[in-house]
Write a structure and sequence with these properties.
The protein folds into three domains: 2-36; 56-170, Immunoglobulin-like (Sandwich); 173-376, MetI-like fold (Orthogonal Bundle). 58% of the residues lie in helices and 16% in strands. It has twelve helices and seven strands.
Length: 377
């Protein structure tokens, strides 16, 4: 016996170790890479931790100089100005892809600077963003773009916009957009939970063994609805959202439908298990005096399951708020969709604002649902 147990335990230990080794390999775990790519991660984390909540009106001032590309394509600047807001380049013209130094003097101090090309046909092309110091000075290396040559003797120009915040702080457009989308998410989850409850509550009694599993017909009804709930629970909300999205085009409505279908199955199973776990005493008492089946359910079952039902409903609303955030990534609307757009456009501060909103709402919903369940218990 000791030898058999030793062999068995050794075999089980070997299987566990093999499972972890395979898991490590298939996930391509590379922990040193966390430290090698730390600068990139630090940049993202900094942006996420500095949400774009408030802003000010921006005063824009523009300074420009002629800068032909290539040399000889158009007249060059005769002389750089010596006072006032001005731009000075290390060369007066350049060949495509040639690098040169651009300096700005006496611009707005401590302001964001946008350097761009003004093409001869009046189109613009943003090149670099930088910052002026406390004296309104900046120096930046710029690469000449292989852009359109001069048209009718009009050269390309280098333009610099200084963006200076003015006025009082006010809620940013990002904050307004995040709040709007967060409300869509919350109420999409609320409506889907409500519709799912209306459908799942009566069906759950048909999937409860102590109510319907009596005789061939009752057993058939029980297994039918039990299988229905298990089948619908097997579909991930993302899959359902994708199906409804291709069916109805993407937006909050397909997301609401996906949440509703998944919630019906989940609540139906939870409700049916609550019904199966009731105290049989009141039911048997009603049946002993000849109460009809509907009256037995109404007066013997429903009063016992209402606290559990309410608790599950609130808890699932909390869950649906979180799930609807993920559904938004496949076009289901709400804050998840906004977050997806922000990440795809590399607007990390806006993404950080959305993430903080999700964290706060999920925390508040979790606290609210816990308090309500505590009072109902």
């Amino acid at each position: 016996m000791p030898l058999t147990r030793l062999v068995r335990n050794t075999f089980i230990t070997a299987l566990v170790i093999a499972a972890f080794v395979i898991s490590y390999r298939v996930t391509e775990a590379d922990f040193p890479r966390l430290f090698r790519d730390l600068p990139k991660g630090r940049q993202l984390l900094t942006a996420f931790l500095t949400p774009e909540l408030f802003t000010r009106d921006v005063e824009t001032r523009t300074v420009s100089i002629a800068f032909p590309i290539p040399c000889g394509a158009a007249p060059e600047e005769e002389a750089f100005p010596s006072e006032g807001p001005r731009l000075i380049t290390s060369v007066k013209c350049a060949a495509p892809l040639e690098k040169f130094t651009l300096e700005g003097f006496d611009l707005q101090p401590s302001s964001e600077v946008v350097i761009r090309w003004r093409l001869p046909d009046d189109r613009t092309m943003t090149a670099i963003r930088t910052q002026t110091d406390s004296k309104g000075y900046f120096s930046q290396e710029v690469q000449a773009r292989p852009i359109q040559a001069a048209v009718d003797g009009i050269p390309s120009r280098l333009e610099v916009d200084t963006l200076t915040p003015v006025g009082r702080l006010k809620p940013s457009q990002t904050l307004k957009d995040v709040l709007d989308n967060m409300f869509v998410t919350i109420f999409m989850a609320l409506l889907s939970t409500t519709f799912a409850t209306i459908i799942a509550a009566p069906l759950s009694f048909l999937a409860a063994g102590n109510i319907t599993r009596k005789g061939c017909l009752g057993s058939g009804v029980y297994y039918l609805f039990r299988s229905f709930f298990n089948l619908m629970r097997s579909y991930d909300p993302l899959v359902m959202a994708t199906i409804f999205g291709f069916w109805l085009s993407f937006g909050p409505f397909p997301g609401f439908l996906a949440l509703t279908v998944v919630t019906i199955a989940s609540l139906g199973k939870l409700f049916s298990e609550a019904v199966e776990n009731i105290d049989p005493g009141p039911v048997e008492a009603l049946q002993s005096v000849g109460a009809a089946p509907l009256h037995t359910v109404r007066y013997g079952v429903v009063p016992q399951v209402i606290p559990d039902f309410v608790s599950y409903i609130i808890y699932h609303w909390d869950i649906n708020v979180r799930i609807s955030t993920i559904i938004g990534f496949v076009g289901g609307g709400g804050i998840g969709y906004y977050l997806n757009l922000s990440i795809n456009d590399f607007k990390w501060n806006q993404a950080g604002t959305a993430i903080w909103a999700i964290v706060i709402v999920v925390w508040a919903m979790d606290f609210l649902s816990a308090e309500i369940r505590k009072r109902l218990s």
